[in-house]
Every structure is written in C-alpha cells, then in structure tokens.
Amino acid sequence: MRAIAYFRLTDSTPDALASMEHDFKRYCTYEMHQSYQMFFTEGPGVGTSDAAFRRLVDFLESSDSQFLVTVPDASHLGGDLESIARSIVELDRLGAEIKCWDDEYPDPFQNTFNTQGIAGVSVTRSRKVKEAMEARALEGNVLGRVLYGYRAGENGNLEIVPEEAKVVELIFRLYTRDELGFRLIAQELNERGIKTRRGGSWNVVSIRDIIRNRSYIGTYERFGIRRPGMHEAIISREVFNEAAERLRSRKPTGRIVKPKPFLLSGFVYCGYCDNKMMGVTRRQSWRRKTDNRRVTGVYRYYQCQSKNNQSTCDYHTWKEDALEREALTQVKYTVLARAAGVLQDDGEEDRKREVANLRRERVRNAERLFKRAMRRAAKNEIGVREVGEYLAALDLARKSETRSDEPSDVIGVLDNWATLDLERRKDFLWEHVARIIVQDDKVEVEV
Fold it and tell me: Is the pTM of this model over 0.85?
C-alpha cells in the first residue's frame, strides 16, 4: 500500500529530517508498503490547524487513490487527546488508514493511551527499555499482550492454545471458503457462544485484526523486526494469502465521499439493549425491467450499533425520515409544554440560570462521553466514525453553552424548523433533549 509520513520536527537540522526519513522508509520496508511522500512541520504546531497537516488534507482530497498515513507516534497528530482525535477523524473521513511506526502500538488510539503522557519516565530510560525489548524481539520472545490463539511458553516464545487456535481457523475458513464478511463472522461466533479471551463478544474490529495478522503464519513482528518461522503457525501461508487478497479486493478505490450527517446521531438509543443507534447509508443499484436502464437508490436508516458491530442485538432499524418525523412530533409536544409552563411562571430569571447550568453540565457530560469513547476505541470496541460523532456532540454542546436564547424563543424555533440548517437543529436538540429511546413500535423522548 502507498504510505505517507506526517510528523513534527523539533530539530530543524538536516540530520533530524534525514533520521525521520530513514525511520519512515524502514517502517515501509518491514511492513511491505511503498514510501510515497512526506509531510512535516517544524516547531510545536501539530494537528488539524497545522499548515503541513492542511497540505496533507488537500493532497488526499485531490487524489483518487487510497493511502496509508503513518506517524512516528500519536503525539505527532496533536498535543492532547481531543486534537489527536480530530486529526484521526479528519484523515479517516478522506478514506485514509492511520498507523503509528511503533510496532507495539500501531493503532493511533491505543498509541495515545499507551505511549503518551507517561509521567516519571525519562527519555533516556524509555530508550534503554526499548533497546532491551528490541533485543528480546530478535530472539522471538513475547512482548506485551499475547496474541489470541497463543500463550507465552516457558522459554518466552509463543505456544498454541488449541481451543483458541480452532477459533482462528474457523474465522479464516468463514472468510475465505464461505466468503462471509467481518460482521457476519462476528455474528456467527457470538451465536455459537464463542467468547473472546476476555469473555466479551466478537465485533468487526476484532475479526479484522485476526485476518490481517501475519503472526498466524508463524512470523514474529515487533519493533520493525520481522522473523518468519519463530513459532508454530495456526494458518497456512496459502490460506493467509488468500484472505489478504480478498481483503485487498474489497477495499474501495477512489475518493471516499462523506455522507450527509444524520440529525439524530448521538441522541437515539436502542430500547432493547440501551446501546446507541447509528445512522447507516446504503446504496443499491439494479436494472429496470421496463427499459433495462441501471438505477441507483440510496437508503438511509438508523440501526442498533450492537447489531452492526457485535451482532448481539436483534435487527432493530428505523427509516431515517420516519424516525425523525416521529421524534420531532414528540419533541415539539414535550418542549412546547415545558415552554408554556415557563412562560406562565414569574421566575424567568431562575429559568435562565437553570438553562445556563444545564448547558454547562451538558458540556461536561459531552467531554466525559468523548473521553470514554476514546478509551473504547483504544480497546477496539468502536471505530473512528463513532469517535467523530462524540466529537461533533461535544462541539454542539460547547456552541449551545454560548447561546443566549430566551425560553420564549422555543416556539419560534419550532415554528420555523423547516427553514433551519442541520447544525441549528442539532443545537436545539442538544439544548432540550437528553435521549430518544427507540423500539420497533414506539419512540420515547427524554428531556
């Protein structure tokens, strides 16, 4: 895959740039990627506002190809948790995959929590620790979390766990022979009662990570060191290559188009499992029988996230327009009733203070939910798109905090609802709606 490097130079000397370029090319060699281009910034600035990052975004937007964006570690994407997340979400929106050069924590979310901001560890000590670990890696010793299907043996090398190895073989068989997708494989395992090592349910990400991992053919990979035949293989090289070829063939080519946002994202919860419902866009094409012309249809609906990622809930969906129409009807009734009570009350100043306190609390709650989402992403429980939804909710909560709407403005907003843009509608919902609970035959609005 064609790889791009993005990094920050704290030292503007030619040697510093040459060192980064060397590390980037070494990473590409070990991971079998094509080093394509480098974007770098000098000084402390990083993240979405950085000029080099904007050039990278412009490049990806103008390209018809898919790229892997690589960074030395997550700190090069931003100076704090939020700015790192914004960079990841922006790159993902453009269809890019993001990886860190750190072989132990290549996932940017995991890298953020596991390698950044560790107080009390000096740079010198960190370097010595890494050098010692690299020496162990040369011997094929287990470092960090042990891969599913294996355990650490007495000599420090990987040994097969027979029960888990059967599950790994099943996953590859379902993917290559039966041609099931990641979601259907997760559903199959969950329906059979097969648990992950931690006793949890399988999801799309955990299945994908197993399919991609070369360790299952006996190849040891750590710290840029790749050594074949270091432990017993669970999967043959032929089966692994077949899976890799299918994986490549399913990747989209060309630029990724950002779908229109869903109004109720962040508000809708499944009434059966209490997980969030996410907006889904599906495109289907067919030929009309009348004139044999190809027609494309776009279908948008809300679907339980548990069903989509873990297949642990039934197929609960609502069409976008139907759910939004029903939810808005109830929002109008509930909010107008409350507004009428406020307008009849002499204590409007108390109401203003109540609204201000509510807005501040919603910002704090949105911040807590965002941090929780980052931790869940680091555990592979949710993906980049879900993190982006929590970021959008945080932005709306902050914007709502600065608004100065009077309670009497509620009627005006609802009367002119059809003329408002999406951002203003979501802003209103964040101010007046806590959650929307959805079941197959009813919708309940909590304020």
Answer: no
